[in-house]
Amino acid sequence: xxxxxxxxxxxxxxxSLRLSCxxxxxxxxxxxxxxxxxxxxxxxxxxxxxxxxxxxxDYADSVKGRFTISRDYPKNMxxxxxxxxxxxxxxxxxxxxxxxxxLRSRVDNWGQGTLVTVSS
Length: 120
Description:
This protein is mainly β. It is built from no helices and 10 strands. It starts with a strand and ends with a strand.
């Protein structure tokens, strides 16, 4: 499954961005989808996930209340709405998918990263 992420950019402290992810040639309906990020010099970390059946979402504590993950099944898209951005949110964001219920447990497919830079 080839995942394509987009929407990164430069934003000021407190601003917003929306990331998008799709698979142009594959249905994502049966995949739990989500996002990870990797800041310079740090490990890649989980950000958010949306289960394949839409039953639940999962967020890292650091983004709860600021980020919202959603998916559009007809458009085969997932989104990450990021509000109240902070400099510590600066990272390369990766779209990811798994056939499991929980993206934290295993990632089956990675998209290319999209860079988010938050200036102070």
